[in-house]
Every structure is written in structure tokens, then in C-alpha cells.
Specification:
The complex is a heterotrimer of chains A (170), B (605) and C (584). With 170 residues, chain A is an alpha+beta fold. Chain A contains 9 helices and 4 strands. Chain A folds into 2 domains: 62 residues; 84 residues, Glutaredoxin. Chain A has a 4-stranded mixed β-sheet with strand order 2-1-3-4, with helices on one face. In chain A, 47% of the residues are buried. The mean pLDDT of chain A is 90. In chain B, 40% of the residues lie in helices and 14% in strands. Chain B has 26 helices and 19 strands. Chain B is globular and about 85 Å long. Classes of the chains: A alpha+beta (170), B alpha/beta (605), C alpha/beta (584). At the A-B interface, α3, α4, α6 and α7 of A face α2, β11, β15 and α18 of B. The structure holds flavin mononucleotide, iron/sulfur cluster (8 copies) and FE2/S2 (inorganic) cluster (3 copies).
Chain lengths: 170, 605, 584
């Protein structure tokens, strides 16, 4: 366990440099406060926040690793596990829930045979539930990556998944 | 660069005297419309107009939300004042050919009213009739990306007057006498908050805009940020001047990263124009704004948690006092206000406290924006004077319940609020009346529920939400909301007893009283209010009277066998063309038959 | 200006009380004779640690004017405020919080190390909880014993955050943090690493404030009993200085009462074959350390030199300042010195097979448990010290053996490793080591007798203190720090090249070992530390010999066995080395 945390060899050096350069811009009081933006950036670059990366960030920002890990695990935006090529999020905000979003979520999980927040076997999808994305007018709402689908019916879930599966296959 | 009040007025005068083009096509680029391809419609229109050489006389621009999101994507042709709704890509060509070129209204793209008549514009559409727009004044009118548009519509006038012609105390006095109360949930008098922050002595202070908008089902803050970003910037500058702060921060929730784009642009534009930054309008007042992103935690809408989050920490609230106005960001006095609260500030300063004070009820002044959603005909944003009744909002504006269903309840205030039922439909909505009804204003999410809604499931949904979003710091909320959820789960699993209802009630009371922050203090509200209004439904569960199985309505069944074929546990029996029967004890309530039945002969439990 | 400005009049249950501005409702109530229960609250402002989390909600009272419940531990009273502690709302609020905590707690009191010393248990008793109305899912996390020093059982955690306050604010290590949120929240190490794989110093300050058994010193009494019953082994024991001014608290003595003789007596009754004094090792440490210091000074080697007898502090520098690990003294800690000698010098003199000797230490300290497992303190498979038990564990063993502690007679330590001076005694308090070293170094360097041995500037509870001393025309600058946060400041200075000191003493615990993580719980009453501290200095003052080099048994040890201070053999047995460790 500990070895894994200390080992940084698996990381692409270019990506690490990119992250370090981002961290450079913060100093003084801003440095301590920059944790959340830095984690954002790290997740953007690496896709997720594995433990050794969190520790790397902790050292760079002179924060205890436990504090970094405490922040990462507090916010639902951050993921410690790798995510699929596509992130399909079903809005479970109230407006969407009232319009049957829970069924959409079950359906999506069923089709992809996966669990919430866990990557599918083929690595294509991570299915998540999210809180309101502010498009309640279109409830129930499903997003795949940045694309928003409104007034989604259970049937359409099949199409949506199929569509993105294809896109990433070619 | 705008270097003085005179500069500003000259610039506005120039903008206002510019001759507009023959036609202006305004496309809604609010979140809902965007997600149904309004961005493509905008592109197509712009390209087409250019290709056909119409760009000299026709301008195609985007704007913020038109409020009637359920009818999106939509666009408006000015000055003809015609609104087209529910557009598809195919409709673009027709609008150009028919309306833009020939000047004919494309009737079938107009909004169809309940009475089957087509509505040409806002004044024809009941949805807009009772609305009064202050916070949303510029939405659907100006291009959020254009500082000039904002300036043309009186933008930065309030700020200019405040910092060049008024003392900070004057500004606070106006806000105070206007009667404006915080729109973020608590309803705290805004002027008073400003006064407190001003009164705390410190070398540094901060002004913070709470754009976390955590209530799932509310989207007014997002729409304002997207559609009228300068109004927030302007208000924050005024706020900074009034309390003696030179730094502003906007905390935006993670999911709104894209929504914040117009805001980022607005900040840059304002800075370039000299409206933000050092020595604004030649005064010695300097003020700048930074944006901080949240990372997915409802509790970060609570102001102390929000501050910790901005400091790079876990978003855990701290006990108040001390209030942020005394000890806030980086330990310095900080004034936290909500987006909608800010959006009200410029008009108040321009039109005066009295003007605002005349709108609304005795203790709740001005208007309130509600996000109308759920089982309702017209979905969208509604801004109405305080004191408007639920009936007006739900029926006159919202168009009632779809599919001929009956109204059951409306949840207001999100996970912190409660339900209002039939008997309170004529209640005049304001902070106090809602409180009395066991609900709260919250941020103004208004979720309408029809007769099919299982109210205990709704309470469970909210508890699931709050216990999931609890920061886990204090005992009553960390363990109490979990226990409440467990009791509800026990009930809906048909494993409860009448004693559980008592537990539910006492525990709810105590979690409310004992929790550290507003999240835990209000988490039991949905339970308490539904228990109060729908106790019988809880009792159905507690006494296990509730049917869990689906059943076939023998009157309607045509014996098509569809249900039997989809049932995963094969508990539906029946020959073709005969009435089918469900073995209730085997039914797992998956609902597959319900969806499959072509004649709606299956009855939900 | 006027005193009246600073006084606040308020009402607690209709009783008028006048208190200083800034007083909490909890303290105001105390003044009115009303005790409100607390759990998360911990006010150690003398140590720079106030746990302000106000999160347990067992101290709620009603603010009559607003009609809401407020946490009395955090609510500062204001002029005219009216507080009611016993309204139905307040009582129900407090009860519910307690019941909810218990609904998520194992309730293993009968077999729990914290039995009868547990604040949660006391709370349940004070609240007369005889029924828990709510049941449901309970936490379920693995227990972590990996460090060999601390047992971490998250299932008994009440999330009071006292441990993180100590670790973050006082010690500046930050080993623990709440992870996740909501019901899933757990106070844990980064990535749930084993505590032994983190930068934990094992100072045990989290242990000393944890109200429950979620963090305790890893119990080792069972292993000690096994050794004691094993007649094949020769089991010896040593007792640290700070133990003798604290153990009595477990048997109804007042804090600071000295019970050295009774402790020796009890240990003999428990069946130890010989009872040694860690103070002997302390005197020895001083001589070796003074020698090392004088050499470093004369040879212009790295200065300042740092003391090395606190293992938590050693861990700290290894993890946090790897670039500076050549500056601590190479001397082993007193317990290790006594341990090493018990298996060489003592065994040789007594004709015992060294492999049969087992050394048990009784320490005020949690870190010493981990220290005994250090590679560098294990020669050819022979550990300097085999088992370390804390002051508390000794107390529990004495109770277990049904020894009536109060009626024991007083016995002296055993020969060879049993004599000590006043200088060794004050090792247990912050500043004591350096004062003892100064007494010896002065005479070593000047060859003159030191007349006044009391260095009052070095004493006290200030976090960082300094003293200077004229020796041979040179002014020696001495720095003293206790608590690792203060140590960090001194080390940062050294790293920046700004240190003004030649010699620095560092102790990880507040007040030094008297405030160690293995001492009887202070339950938030820090005045106890002061009493223990005073007792140590009183002991020193009352002793005939007060300089380490006057210890005759130590001198005999050099004569018969080690040759002279700093000799090759002394180095082999009494000195050690440090290794760089990863910071996590
Ligand atoms: C759990 C919780 C969530 C909250 N979420 C929000 C929010 O999303 N947006 C908001 O403006 N205020 C929110 N608030 C209220 C803020 O704490 C604060 O009162 C408000 O931002 C003050 O601004 P106002 O006076 O302009 O309303 C929340 C409060 C609680 C307790
Ligand atoms: S009430 Fe809930 S969200 Fe608020 S501090 Fe307590 S645990 Fe956290
Ligand atoms: S609800 Fe599901 S299990 Fe029950 S009868 Fe219908 S299809 Fe079968
Ligand atoms: S699907 Fe409907 S109509 Fe067809 S058999 Fe079933 S209940 Fe009857
Ligand atoms: S920690 Fe305290 S309450 Fe819990 S089992 Fe141990 S003694 Fe009992
Ligand atoms: S206190 Fe109660 S549970 Fe504990 S040992 Fe005595 S009788 Fe048993
Ligand atoms: S033993 Fe010391 S360093 Fe380790 S967690 Fe506890 S307080 Fe922190
Ligand atoms: S481990 Fe102990 S001190 Fe730390 S939070 Fe839990 S109960 Fe409190
Ligand atoms: S100060 Fe003493 S008790 Fe504390 S860790 Fe150091 S040696 Fe142990
Ligand atoms: S509730 Fe789903 S988008 Fe708002
Ligand atoms: S987003 Fe277009 S009308 Fe609201
Ligand atoms: S003791 Fe006051 S809240 Fe815990």
C-alpha cells in the first residue's frame, strides 16, 4: 500500500510537468488555498486522482497528504478511481426525480451492467447520478460528457448509450 | 476606457442613439435551450443571414433565458415582437424565408395556448402575464456577452451613482429602506448585513457572491449569471464600496463551470473598460473580483462552509456566531449575498428604495424568482411580486397539471423546505407565510406534484439527498439524518410499525433543533411537513395497508398479452384477448407491465 | 479601561451571573453552579489548542431570547443574554445527540481499555441513558495496530476532532483528517494508510485527548504478563522519571504526588527480576551528550546540536526535515541506554545469559513503544528494550494484580542501573534535559565547580524559551521547545540559516514527558501538568547529588565497562543513527 503511494514512476512526465507548472503560479497565501483548483487541473490532466498523485500535490503545496485526501473525498466532483471514456450522468435533482430520473439511472446501469460511479468493464462508461445541472426545464436530463439530453425517455437511453459507444469506437 | 461618470453617460448616450438594424433575431442561449441545440440554431441563422447578404439589415444575437424553458429552443424577432418556440433545425430556413425576408409570421411555430389560440409574443402568453421582472430584467433582452448591451440598458448607472455621488452609509441606507431580504434562503435583511460588515473594523474585507445554487430543481441563479452577468458584477462593486471591501469573490458550483463562461467574459470586459479594478471611474475606490469554483457539495452553499471551501478546505460549516460579517474569508469580515439578491441591487439604487418598497407584502418586499418544475404544464422561471398566490403561479402562469391529473402538493424551498397543499393554494407567498406553513422560501425552487406522487417516497428522496450531502461534522445531522432515512426506508419496504412514525416525528424535531448548520436544521422539514399534511399516507405504510403490487384494471384490459411478456418474474397470467391477472404476492413492482400496456390498464400501487 | 466594560451580565436558569467578556455559556453556567455535559469540547488554550468544532451537540442549551438551541461550549454570552439549560427542548436535544452517538457505537465497555476512563461512557451515565431509541447501520472500519504504538479503532470514534486539533494545531503534523462526508465520514490517515506507514510521530497527543477508545496506546500488558510468568526469562524493568509523579493519580493521589518507592515495590510484587531506573540512563545520556557537544564545539562541527532523547521528536525530524538529520545528538534515549546495558553490562556482571534478559520499560510515552522497534536499536536480533508499557498500563497491571498500591512500602531501585541524580529527575519536564546537560557541560569545559545548579530561565511552560550561559569566555546560546509546532519553528530557522542557538532541547509533548501520551488522562485539566512539573523540580532540589557526573554507579560503569565518555564501546552501545523517511 505505502509503496504504491510513494511510486510516481507510472506517471507521464509531461503531464506531471504540466501540473507542476500550473501549481507554480500560486504562492504565499494563495498556495494553501489553491488546493481545489489544483485538484481540478490534476483531474483534467490525468482523468482522476490516484493516491500517489494526491501525495505529489500535497508535497508541492506543503500540505499533509491526509488533508488533501480529506478534501478529495469530501467533494463529489473528484474521483479517486479511473473513469470511463464517457461519463453518463443522470440528473437526480428534484425536478428530474419527479419526472422519473431514478428509472433512467437504473436503466442506464442495467444496459451497461455497471454500478454507480464505477467504470464499465469495457472502459467505455462511468454512470453517475448528479444533482441538478440547472436545465430543469428539460427534466429529466441526462448528460454524456458535455452534451446535454433533455426530456429523456427510458427508450432514448438505449440510443444515447449506443451513440456514444459508437463514437468512441472509431 | 470609461474614466468618469460623464464618460459613462456619454458612452450610453451614443449607444442609445445608434440606429438599430431593421430586424434583430434574438436566440435564447439559456441552459435549457442550449441543451436542445439552440446554439446550432444560432450558428445556422448567423451563417444563413451572412450567406444571403442580409447581415446589413438583420442582426442575429444570443441572449439569456427567455424564462419559458419548457418551450425551448426559442427565439424572438424584434421589433416585430414575435416569439417562436419549440424550434428544430428544420425551422431555421422557414423563419428566414418567411419572416425575415418576406415579413410573414410563421404561425405554426408560435406558442399554442390552452385555448388552442397561437400567441404571438409575451403579452399574448399567459405565462408572462403576471410576471414582474426586476432581477431578471435583462434576460432575453440583452446579449450577455456584450458590455455595450448592458450599458445601453442602464448598466453600471447604479454603481456610478453610488461611488461618485453617495457615501457608503447612503448606499446602505437605500438598501435598508428598500426592504430587500436575502434571496439565498434565510431572508436576512440585506441592508442590515451590509451595515454589520461595514461596522466590523479590519484592514481587509471581502464581498462574496454565493452562486452555489444547491437546491436541485432551482436554476434562477444560473440563468442570471448566464444571461446578465454584469448585473452581478455591478452589484458586487456597490456592495464593496458600501462595506469597505476591495475584493470580491464569486463562488460557483462545479456543475456550472460552463454556465460561468459569460461571467468570465464579463469580468474581462468590465476590467478592460475600467469599470472594475483600480480607481474606478476616477474615484479612489478600487475593486476587483475573482471566481472560485466549488467541487460538488450542497453544503458549500452554507456561507461558512462556502468560505472554507474557498480557502481550499473541506466544506464544513462552523458555528455562528461569529458570522462571516465578523470573521469570514481568511478570517476577515466578509459579506455573503446570493446571486438573485445582487441582481436586485442596481434597480433599487437607480429607482430608489421607495419604488422597491411598494412592491410586495408587509415584510417581504420586491419580487421573487421561482423555478417552476415538476408535474406542471409550463416549466420555467417565474418572477412575481411577493404576495402572489400559489394558485396564480401554478394555474395562471404554470398552466396547471398536465394529463388531466389532479394537483397534490408543491414542494418549495428544496430539500430544506416543505410541501404546501390544496388548502394553502390561495396563500400569499412571502417569507413569513411560508414559514408559518412549515415550509420556507429557500432559493425558490418550486416542484409541483400530481396525484400519482407517492409523498413518502418524496420525503425519502429528500432525506436521501440531505443525508448524502451532510458534511458529517455534527452528530444530529451525521447520524440523525441517516436514522431518519432508515426509518423511511423501513416504512416504504413495508417493514415499519406505527411506532416508527412517532420516532420519525421526535427525531425530526430534535435533528432540527440540535444540528449545527442550516442543512441539518432544515433537513427534517420535508418529513415534518409531509407528515403533517399526508399522515394517512405514512400510516398506510406503517400499518402496511399499502399495496406494493401492480394490478390490472379488468375494465380496461384488452388482453393483448404485452404485459405478461415483459414481466421479469412471470407473475401475470391470462389468455390472449382475456383479462390478465397479476399474482400480487409475486409482483416485484418493477413497473415493466405498466410501461408496456398500450391501454393504460395497469394500475400503479 | 474601565473594568466594567469587560464584564458581562447574563442569566443562566434565571440565576444572574457576571463574567468576563468572551466567556462561554458553559463557563458562565459553571459559575452559576450548573454543570453542562460536554464531549467534543476541549480547551487547552495554554497549549495553543482549542477544539472549537462544537459538533457533538451534547452541550446544547436554550437561548431564551431566540428560542433556539446553542452549543454552550461555543456560545459566548452577551450582555443580558438569558440561557436555560433544562428546558424540554434542551434536554431532548442533548439526549438525542447522545443516543445517536451511542446508536453508532460498539458499546463494548466491559472489555474496553477505556472502561471507567471514558468520556462517552461518563456522558451516557451522566445523562442517565438506559435506552437507545434509534438503531440502524453502524460504522465498520478495520482496526489499525500497525504502528506498534497506537491502536486506532475508528468504530469507537465520535468525530469530536480533538485528535486532529492536536495533530494539526499543536504538533503540525496533520496525520489524521476526516475523510468522506455524511454518515461515511471517518477520521483516518491519508488514503487509509496504516498509521505505521505515515509521518505519525507517535507522540500520542491525539491519544491523550481522545475521549473514547478510538485512539489508545497499543496495549502490551498481555505480553508483559507472559514474560513475567516465564521463569526461563530474566525479566527486568525500568521506570521513566515522569511516571513517578503521575502514576499515583490512578490510585487517588493528588497530581504531583511522588510515588517512586511504591512503584518499585509494586514492580517487585508483579514479579520483575530487577527494577532499574531510567534516570540512571538519563545521567548517562547527559554525560555522553555533553561530551559530544563539547567535541562538536571544539572541532567546529555542525551546530546547533539537538537533543535526541524524545523518539517522537526523532521521528519528526526524520520525516519533516530530512535535510537536517545530522544535527541531533547521536545519543540513544535513556530507555535504550538502560536497555542496552541490561543485556551487556548487567548480564555480564550478574552472569546471566544476555539472550535470556527481557527489558520492559514503563514510560509516560507512546512513542517509546515504536522506538523500541527501531532497527537501529536492535543489535544482532537483541532489542535494547523488548516491551514498553505506559504509565496507565502499569496502573492497570497493578489493579489487575490486586495490589493495594496505597499501602505499599517504599523500595529502592536495584543496583548497577539504579542510582540517579537530580539532573536526571528533571528530564521529565521541558527544559530539564538541557539544564542537566548544562550542569555537566559547564564543569566538563571549565573544570570548575558549578555553584548554582538551578537554571531558572530554562524552566517554565513557554512554548519556546531561550537561555544563554558564559563558558570559557564564550556565550552559549540555548534554545528549548516543547510541542512539535514550536520545534518546527526552530528547525525552519536552522534551515534558513537564521538559528541563533548552539544547543537545543526539543520535547514533543506539552510540558515534556510529564504531558506524555501515556500518562494518566488529564481530561482537559492542564493544571495537572504544572503540578507534575513542580514535583519533578522539587525532587531535584531535594537531592544530594544534582549533577549527572556525580552519579557513582554511572562512574563505576565507565570505570568497569565503558572506559570513558565517548569511547568506542560507549559509541557501540549508547549511540545510534537516523534515517530519512518519506513525508506523507
Ligand atoms: C445547506 C445550505 C445550503 C445553502 N445553499 C445556498 C445556495 O446554494 N445559494 C445561496 O445563495 N445561499 C445558500 N444558502 C444560504 C447561505 O448560507 C447564505 O445565507 C446566503 O448566501 C446569504 O445570502 P442572502 O442574504 O443574499 O440570501 C444555503 C444555506 C444552507 C444552510
Ligand atoms: S448540520 Fe449537517 S451539514 Fe451542517 S454541520 Fe452538521 S453535519 Fe454538517
Ligand atoms: S410490476 Fe413487474 S413484477 Fe409486477 S406484474 Fe408488472 S412486470 Fe410483473
Ligand atoms: S398489457 Fe394491458 S391490455 Fe395488454 S394484457 Fe396486459 S393489462 Fe391487458
Ligand atoms: S470507548 Fe467508552 S463507551 Fe465505547 S466501548 Fe469503550 S468504554 Fe465503552
Ligand atoms: S453495568 Fe450493566 S452491563 Fe455492565 S456489567 Fe454491570 S450489569 Fe452488566
Ligand atoms: S501520535 Fe502525534 S503525530 Fe501521530 S497522529 Fe497522534 S498527534 Fe499526530
Ligand atoms: S479518534 Fe478520538 S479524538 Fe479523534 S475524532 Fe475520533 S473520538 Fe475524537
Ligand atoms: S516528550 Fe516524552 S513522552 Fe512525549 S514523546 Fe517525547 S519522550 Fe515521549
Ligand atoms: S433537477 Fe435535473 S436539471 Fe435540475
Ligand atoms: S433557457 Fe431558453 S427559455 Fe430558459
Ligand atoms: S461539547 Fe459543545 S458541542 Fe460538543
Amino acid at each position: 500500500m505505502k509503496k504504491a503511494v510513494l511510486d510516481m514512476s507510472q506517471f507521464d512526465q509531461n503531464k506531471l510537468n504540466e501540473l507542476d507548472a500550473f501549481i507554480e503560479q500560486y504562492e504565499g497565501e494563495n498556495k494553501k488555498e489553491s488546493l481545489i483548483p489544483v485538484l481540478y487541473q490534476a483531474q483534467k490532466i490525468f482523468g482522476y486522482l490516484p493516491h500517489n498523485l494526491q501525495r505529489h500535490i500535497a508535497l508541492k503545496l506543503a500540505l499533509p497528504s491526509a488533508h488533501v485526501n480529506g478534501v478529495v473525498t469530501f467533494y463529489s466532483y473528484f474521483s479517486e478511481k479511473p473513469v470511463g471514456k464517457n461519463t453518463l450522468s443522470v440528473c437526480m435533482g428534484t425536478a428530474c426525480f419527479v419526472k422519473g430520473a431514478d428509472k433512467l439511472l437504473d436503466k442506464a446501469l442495467g444496459i451497461t451492467q455497471s454500478k454507480r460511479n464505477e467504470i464499465t468493464e469495457d472502459g467505455q462508461f462511468t454512470i453517475k447520478d448528479v444533482r441538478c445541472i440547472g436545465a430543469c426545464g428539460l427534466a429529466p436530463v441526462v448528460t454524456v460528457n458535455d452534451k446535454v439530453y433533455g426530456k429523456v425517455s427510458e427508450k432514448e437511453i438505449d440510443d444515447i448509450i449506443a451513440k456514444h459507444q459508437e463514437e468512441t469506437h472509431d | 476606457m470609461i474614466r468618469s461618470y460623464d464618460d459613462l453617460q456619454n458612452r450610453r448616450a451614443t449607444l442609445q442613439t445608434q440606429k438599430p438594424k431593421r430586424l434583430e433575431v434574438i436566440v435564447c442561449a439559456g441552459t435549457s435551450c442550449l441543451s436542445s441545440d439552440s446554439d446550432i440554431i444560432l450558428d445556422m441563422l448567423q451563417k444563413d443571414v451572412l450567406d444571403r447578404g442580409l447581415d446589413i439589415e438583420v442582426e442575429v444575437v444570443k441572449s439569456g433565458c427567455f424564462l419559458f424553458c419548457g418551450q425551448g429552443p426559442m427565439l424572438k424577432v424584434m421589433p416585430d415582437d414575435v416569439i417562436y418556440v419549440q424550434l428544430t433545425l428544420k425551422d431555421v430556413n422557414r423563419i428566414i424565408e418567411e419572416h425575415i425576408i418576406k415579413g410573414n409570421i410563421v404561425t405554426d411555430l408560435l406558442y399554442e395556448r390552452d385555448d388552442k389560440k397561437r400567441a404571438k409574443n409575451e403579452s399574448d402568453t399567459p405565462y408572462y402575464k403576471k410576471q414582474r421582472r426586476i432581477a431578471l430584467r435583462n434576460l432575453g433582452i440583452i446579449n450577455p456577452d456584450s458590455l455595450d448591451d448592458y450599458l445601453e440598458y442602464n448598466g453600471y448607472e447604479a454603481m456610478a451613482r453610488a461611488i461618485t455621488k453617495m457615501t457608503p452609509e447612503d448606499v446602505i441606507e437605500v438598501v435598508k429602506t428598500s426592504g430587500l431580504r436575502g434571496r439565498g434562503g434565510g431572508g436576512f435583511p440585506t441592508g442590515l448585513k451590509w451595515k454589520f460588515t461595514r461596522a466590523t473594523k479590519s484592514d481587509e474585507k471581502y464581498v462574496i457572491c454565493n452562486a452555489d445554487e444547491g437546491d436541485p430543481g432551482a436554476f434562477m441563479d444560473r440563468s442570471i449569471m448566464e444571461g446578465d452577468p454584469h448585473s452581478i458584477i455591478e452589484a458586487m462593486i456597490i456592495n464593496g464600496y458600501a462595506v469597505g471591501a476591495n475584493n470580491g469573490l464569486i463562488y460557483i458550483r462545479a456543475e456550472y463551470e460552463i454556465a460561468a463562461k459569460p461571467l468570465f467574459k464579463a469580468l474581462i470586459d468590465a476590467r478592460e473598460a475600467g469599470l472594475l479594478g483600480k480607481e474606478i471611474l476616477g474615484t479612489d475606490f478600487s475593486f476587483d473580483i475573482e471566481v472560485k469554483l466549488g467541487a460538488g457539495a450542497f453544503v458549500c452553499g452554507e456561507e461558512t462552509a462556502l468560505i472554507h471551501s474557498m480557502e481550499g478546505k473541506r466544506g464544513e460549516p462552523t458555528t455562528k456566531p461569529p458570522f462571516p460579517s465578523e470573521v469570514g474569508f481568511r478570517g476577515k469580515p466578509s459579506n455573503v449575498n446570493n446571486v438573485e439578491t445582487y441582481a436586485n441591487i442596481p434597480p433599487i439604487l437607480v429607482h430608489g428604495a421607495d419604488w422597491f418598497n411598494k412592491i410586495g407584502t408587509k415584510n417581504s418586499k420586491g419580487t421573487k424568482v421561482f423555478a417552476l418544475a415538476g408535474n406542471i404544464e409550463n416549466i420555467g422561471l417565474v418572477e412575481v411580486p411577493m404576495g402572489t398566490t400559489f394558485r396564480e403561479i401554478i394555474y395562471d402562469i404554470g398552466g396547471g397539471i398536465p394529463n388531466g391529473k389532479k394537483f397534490k402538493a408543491v414542494q418549495i424551498g428544496g430539500p430544506s423546505g416543505g410541501v404546501v397543499t390544496e388548502k394553502d393554494l390561495d396563500m400569499e407567498i412571502d417569507y413569513d407565510s411560508l414559514q408559518q406553513a412549515g415550509s420556507m422560501m429557500g432559493s425558490g425552487g418550486m416542484i409541483v406534484m400530481d396525484e400519482d406522487t407517492d409523498i413518502v417516497e418524496i420525503a425519502k428522496f429528500y432525506l436521501d439527498f440531505t443525508q448524502d450531502e451532510s458534511c458529517g461534522k455534527c452528530t444530529p445531522c451525521r447520524i440523525g439524518t441517516k436514522r431518519l432515512y432508515e426509518i423511511l426506508e423501513k416504512l416504504t419496504n413495508m417493514e415499519g410499525t406505527p411506532h416508527d412514525l412517532e420516532l420519525l416525528e421526535t427525531l425530526s424535531e430534535n435533528v432540527k433543533n440540535a444540528s449545527l448548520c442550516g442543512l441539518g436544521q432544515s433537513a427534517p422539514n420535508p418529513v415534518l411537513s409531509t407528515l403533517k399534511h399526508f399522515r394517512d399516507e405514512y400510516e398506510d405504510y406503517a400499518y402496511r395497508r399499502k399495496r406494493t403490487a401492480y394490478v390490472v384494471d379488468g375494465q380496461k384490459c384488452i388482453g393483448c398479452t404485452k404485459c405478461a411478456r415483459v414481466c421479469p418474474v412471470d407473475c401475470i397470467a391470462g389468455k390472449p384477448r382475456e383479462v390478465h391477472v397479476i399474482t400480487e404476492s409475486d409482483c416485484i413492482a418493477c413497473g415493466a407491465c405498466y410501461d408496456a400496456c398500450p391501454v393504460d390498464a395497469i394500475i400503479k400501487p | 479601561m474601565k473594568l466594567i466594560d469587560k464584564m458581562i451580565n447574563c442569566k443562566i436558569n434565571d440565576i444572574s451571573v457576571t463574567v468576563e467578556a468572551g466567556t462561554t455559556a458553559l463557563d458562565a453556567a459553571k459559575k452559576a453552579g450548573i454543570n453542562i455535559p460536554t464531549l467534543c469540547h476541549l480547551n487547552l488554550h495554554e497549549l495553543g489548542a482549542v477544539n472549537k468544532s462544537a459538533n457533538c451537540r451534547v452541550c446544547l442549551v436554550e437561548n431564551e431570547d431566540r428560542g433556539n438551541l446553542v452549543p454552550s461550549c461555543a456560545e459566548v454570552v452577551t450582555e443580558g443574554m438569558r440561557i436555560q439549560t433544562d428546558t424540554k427542548k434542551a434536554v431532548m436535544g442533548r439526549r438525542t445527540s447522545t443516543e445517536l452517538l451511542l446508536s453508532n457505537h460498539p458499546k463494548d465497555c466491559l472489555i474496553c481499555v477505556k472502561n471507567r476512563d471514558c468520556e462517552l461512557q461518563t456522558l451516557a451515565d451522566d445523562m442517565n441513558i438506559t435506552e437507545i431509541h434509534y438503531t440502524g447501520e453502524m460504522m465498520s472500519h478495520p482496526i489499525d495496530e500497525s504502528s506498534g504504538a497506537i491502536l486506532k479503532d475508528p468504530n469507537k470514534c465520535v468525530m469530536c476532532r480533538r485528535c486532529t486539533t492536536m495533530c494539526d494545531d499543536v504538533q503540525t503534523i496533520g496525520v489524521l483528517s476526516p475523510l468522506k462526508r455524511g454518515f461515511d465520514v471517518v477520521v483516518a490517515t491519508a488514503f487509509h494508510l496504516d498509521l505505521g506507514d505515515t509521518s505519525c510521530t507517535y507522540c500520542g497527543q491525539c491519544v491523550s485527548v481522545c475521549p473514547t477508545a478510538a485512539l489508545v496506546a497499543l496495549p502490551q500488558t498481555t505480553s508483559v504478563w507472559r514474560r513475567l510468568n516465564d521463569k526461563e526469562r530474566h525479566t527486568v524493568v525500568q521506570v521513566a522519571p515522569a511516571v513517578r509523579v503521575a502514576l499515583g493519580e490512578m490510585f487517588g493521589y493528588k497530581p504531583g504526588e511522588i510515588s517512586t518507592g511504591k512503584i518499585v515495590s509494586a514492580l517487585k510484587r508483579l514479579g520483575f527480576d530487577a527494577v532499574f531506573d531510567t534516570n540512571f540512563g538519563a545521567d548517562l545520556t547527559i554525560i555522553e551528550e555533553a561530551k559530544e557537544f563539547v567535541e562538536r564545539l571544539e572541532n567546529n562541527e555542525t551546530l546547533p546540536m539537538l537533543t535526541s532523547c524524545c523518539p517522537a521528536w526523532v521521528q519528526f525530524i526524520e520525516h519533516q526535515f530530512p535535510d537536517l538529520i545530522d544535527i541531533p545528538s547521536s545519543c540513544k534515549s535513556p530507555q535504550s541506554m538502560v536497555g542496552a546495558l541490561s543485556k551487556t553490562y548487567y548480564a555480564e556482571k550478574k552472569g546471566i545469559d544476555p539472550d535470556k534478559v527481557r527489558m520492559v520499560s514503563v514510560m509516560p510515552c507512546v512513542a517509546k513503544k515504536a522506538e523500541s522497534a527501531r532497527e537501529q536499536l536492535n543489535k544482532d536480533g537483541r532489542k535494547d528494550v523488548d516491551f514498553v508499557i505506559t504509565t496507565r498500563e502499569l496502573g492497570r497491571m497493578i489493579k489487575e494484580a490486586a495490589i493495594e498500591f496505597r499501602s505499599l512500602d517504599e523500595k529502592p531501585f536495584d543496583d548497577l542501573l539504579g542510582e540517579s541524580t537530580g539532573a536526571a529527575t528533571i528530564f521529565g519536564a521541558t527544559g530539564g534535559v538541557i539544564e542537566a546537560a548544562t550542569r555537566t557541560a559547564y564543569e566538563m569545559m571549565t573544570g570548575k565547580e558549578l555553584k548554582t545548579v538551578d537554571f531558572k530561565q530554562m524552566r517554565g511552560m513557554e512554548g519556546i524559551r531561550e537561555a544563554s550561559l558564559e563558558i570559557n569566555g564564550r556565550t552559549l546560546k540555548i534554545g528549548i521547545a516543547h510541542e512539535l509546532g514550536n520545534a518546527r519553528k526552530l528547525l525552519e530557522d536552522i534551515r534558513q540559516g537564521n538559528s541563533r542557538f548552539d544547543l537545543i532541547e526539543i520535547m514533543a509533548c506539552p510540558g515534556g514527558c510529564i504531558g506524555g501520551g501515556g500518562q494518566p488522562y488529564h481530561h482537559g485539566d492542564i493544571s495537572i501538568l504544572e503540578k507534575r512539573r513542580k514535583a519533578l523540580y522539587a525532587m531535584d532540589a531535594g537531592m544530594k547529588r544534582r549533577k549527572s557526573h556525580e552519579n557513582e554507579q554511572v562512574m563505576k560503569l565507565y570505570e568497569d565497562f565503558l572506559d570513558k565518555p565517548g569511547s568506542k564501546k560507549a559509541h557501540d552501545l549508547l549511540h545510534t543513527s537516523y534515517s530519512v523517511k518519506a513525508r506523507i
